[in-house]
Amino acid sequence: MAENSKFDETPRITVDYMRGILLPTATCDAWDLIWNFQAKPDDLLISTYPKAGTTWTQEIVDLIQNEGDVEMSKRAPTHIRFPVIEWIMPSVGSGLEQANAMPSPRNLKTHLPIELLPPSFLENNCKIIYVARNAKDNMVSYYHFQRMNKGLPDPGTWEEYFENFLAGKVCWGSWHDHVKGWWKAKDQHNILYLFYEEMKKNPKQEIQKLAEFIGKKLDDNVLDTIVHHTSFDVMKQNPMANYSSLPTEFMNHAISPFMRKGTVGDWKHHFTVAQNERFNEDYKKKMADTSLAFHFQF
Fold first, then answer.
1. Using the 8-state DSSP alphabet, how is residue 16 labeled?
2. Positive or negative torsion for Cα 215, 220, 226, 230
3. Which residues form the Sulfotransferase domain (predicted)?
């Protein structure tokens, strides 16, 4: 109970708009520093819309770089190994400061849409891994994440959240614009674009793809080790990957675990028939100008 009351007493962050995108106020206040962040040519950046398989991808990348050394990947929690460049959280720290203090080669993370990405990443031709997840599952996962995380606004009811998500009135902006923007950029820049659903369906193949992009040749045994160690059930129990190291007043896993289900198609347990129809109609309009295609179930 004490843990819950601590969470209840912790104020949620405030948010503001930066160039039309909703972001935490602390991020907006530090925007000049973030925009002028100096990427280095050997930086590796993982970019996603929030709750699209980011932590999973980070764990995979770390293990590829360490050639399957599981102990090495337990050296620190995810958010220390991969600073989020735009994340500034009172009492947890600034991702920007962390990144600037890191030795090269650096692993970094962002949720920024392509138009808000600090230009030095593209100017230096940094390797960027983008992971996209189907919007229905992404919405459900993000909703539950906001419920348990004081680093984000209160999501309100599911019905309210559904409308806000479709309107792009959530932190880091519209899902549709995010996935389309990065998709469009992938052919001009050093971007590997992956899909959450493909990673679920054939993890070994997608991990191999990542290894090649990173420039690592891994044998079958190492690939199998990485597949096992980054499976949902193993990661859920890994304190270095499941965000249980953060204070409960910021993230309360009793409300909803950070690693909740990790499945494809869970949206069916949340969407009403009417919501699904409304979503599909809206989706058709917003995705009419792109070749991007998603699997909403297997």
1. E
2. positive
3. 41-290
**106 is a domain residue:** yes
Name, in order, each residue with C-beta under 8 angstroms of 93's C-beta and a sequence gap of 6 or more. Answer: none
What is the C-alpha to C-alpha distance for residues 202 and 197, in angstroms, rounded to an integer?
9
d(CA 294, CA 298): 11
Q: Between these two residues, 14 and 106, which has the higher pLDDT value?
A: 106
Identify whether 111 is a catalytic site residue: yes
Please write the tens of the pLDDT for every residue from 137-163.
999 999 988 887 778 888 999 999 999
Domain membership of residue 292 (yes or no) is no
**The domain that contains 172 carries what CATH number?**
3.40.50.300
3-state DSSP assignment of residue 131: strand
Q: Is residue 209 part of a domain?
A: yes
Q: How far apart are CA 106 and CA 6, in angstroms?
A: 35
In a domain, 235, yes or no: yes
CA distances from 113 to 12, 183, 231 (A): 23, 11, 27
Number of domains in the chain: 1
CB 273 within 8 A of CB 157: no
pTM above 0.85, yes or no: yes
Query: Burial code of 15-44, b = ≥16 C-beta within 10 A, e = fewer?
Result: beebeebbbbebbbebeebbeebebeeebb
| Structural domain boundaries, residue 72 | 2-286
DSSP class of 75: S
Q: Which of 111, 144, 176, 178 is catalytic?
A: 111
Q: 216-230 pLDDT, tens per residue?
A: 999 999 999 999 989
